[in-house]
Automatic annotation (TrEMBL):
Upper taxonomic lineage: Bacteria, Pseudomonadati, Bacteroidota, Bacteroidia, Bacteroidales
Segments forming domain DUF4130: 84-250
Name of the protein described by the UniProt record: DNA metabolism protein
UniProt-listed Pfam families: DUF4130 (PF13566)
Source organism, top-level taxon: Bacteria
Length: 256
């Protein structure tokens, strides 16, 4: 059994592919640096992430695959599923070795799985565009906490940068402890060692003077559109997943 250790970044994965071809040794397992190696491992190798080598693999994929297929690879990576790196390693190796594009060879289980994971991440990004709700703090910053299943925020950020270009905002992924801040000029990634301060800024007493009134108006509008005789909770949960409800203004009691 051949084991590669790497830093569990996407660039590190591409570097691992480059090194595997250079060494003519392909890993059976990909583990994070510092993880214990399985018993009876034949060889181990530690990948040092290298941008030029990763870029050569990326360019090689662009020559072998259509643009939409290379996009699927990145979106599947954002799924953060267990062993997704090993799945993508196999996919990339097949793509580089095949005489023709494997992009639509869905009879191959790896090709199908990469496509399915990418679709799940894309759907999560679409849900973020629908269900992110900003709250205006006393200093004029619009804050939106989220907790998506997949790491889909990078795919949704361009939408918010274009749609809300006239206001400063932060969208923060509480699950992964990072987010994006837009300062009316640029959007940049931010990481907080402790998100307690961010959470505290959403306390009703620290919101802008008119924010609570706007939230109450939005809840009133939302409920005024409800036709109680046609309530369908199951359909509502299907269209508006419950995992988003804690951060949806319209799903909170009035006056909170």
């Amino acid at each position: 059994m051949h084991i590669f250790f790497y830093d569990k970044t996407f660039e590190g994965l591409l570097t691992a592919v480059f090194d595997a071809y250079s060494r003519r040794t392909f890993p059976d397992r990909l583990l994070r640096v510092g993880e214990p190696a399985p018993l009876f491992a034949d060889t181990t190798y530690t990948v040092v992430t290298d941008t030029p080598r990763a870029e050569r693999v990326r360019l090689g994929l662009m020559r072998k695959l259509p643009a939409e297929a290379t996009t699927l690879i990145l979106r599947a990576w954002l799924s953060e599923q267990p062993t997704v790196d090993e799945l993508l390693f196999r996919y990339i190796r097949k793509a580089l070795d095949a005489p023709e594009s494997i992009a639509t060879n869905f009879a191959d289980p790896d090709v199908l799985e990469v496509r399915n994971l990418a679709l799940k991440v894309s759907r999560e990004a679409h849900k973020l565009k629908q269900f992110v709700r900003f709250s205006k703090t006393a200093d004029g910053l619009y804050v939106a906490p989220i907790r998506p299943v997949y790491n889909a925020l990078p795919l949704a950020v361009p939408h918010f940068t274009n749609r809300f270009a006239d206001q400063p905002w932060v969208i923060y992924d509480l699950r992964r402890r990072y987010g994006y801040h837009y300062d009316l000029q640029t959007t940049r990634e931010v990481t907080l060692a402790d998100d307690t301060t961010l959470r505290s800024r959403l306390d009703p007493d620290l919101l802008a003077a008119d924010e609570q009134r706007f939230q109450d108006l939005w809840r009133t509008y939302f409920r005024s559109l409800t036709i109680r005789e046609r309530l369908n909770p199951r359909k509502q949960r299907q269209d508006m997943p419950v995992r988003f409800w804690p951060h949806l203004t319209e799903m909170q009691p009035e006056g909170l």
